[in-house]
Specification:
By secondary structure, the protein is mainly beta. The chain is built from 2 helices and 3 strands. The structure holds zinc ion. Zinc ion binds next to loops.
Amino acid sequence: MSLAARFKLHLQCENCRRTRAVILDVPEADDAPRDVDELMDSAFLQQQRFDCLVCESGIGTIVGVNRLALEVAA
Ligand SMILES: [Zn+2]
């Protein structure tokens, strides 16, 4: 599977306020988000589910997004 982009999301639980970082790999597709602005507007992001590991709340807020470099195969 080739990737269009890779992001690191920083999510804060609405319930217990703990934050966690998750790596989000975006599969290659015509409408795949390739930068942070596109990601924030994307249906792909809407489909992501948040589950707090601490309190099991399903509601999270995105507090930060970084775009990561894709590793290039040697
Ligand atoms: Zn929580």
